[in-house]
């Protein structure tokens, strides 16, 4: 029986003032499963490794993403034109941060019992991560796109490191400094 049919059956039982049969319909046809969520535990180094593994491709849309540091460089030089907000408040932060900065998402949500492991991680934009939330790909009718090839598209990581090396004052920004160090570590491999 389809889930929607179970809901309809339970609602019809309620219409007949039969709460007990409605409860049985739900418990047998579409039961609630309480999950104990695992923690989410990955370092910036692990995130960068995931972005490289996925070739800076949003695995939920197929869109190209960028090294997080490059957008902050734009904000450093053009704070009014390309604003940054530490908490990414939408009314105070350029949309590019939401659209192009990668993050790690759990393909099968941790809140539903998914593992917090590399096998369950995918690179996605902050925008798609917030839309996906704790839903499965099936629930959203999304698919998992193939990973990209970091050797063909590096998420502008090479350009980011060149910008920082051309102006070492950028390293006074802790966000830029963190992603620069991670980017250099990736480039040295």
Automatic annotation (TrEMBL):
Source organism superkingdom: Bacteria
InterPro entries: HNH_nuc (IPR003615)
Protein name: HNH nuclease domain-containing protein
Species of provenance: [Bacteroides] pectinophilus ATCC 43243
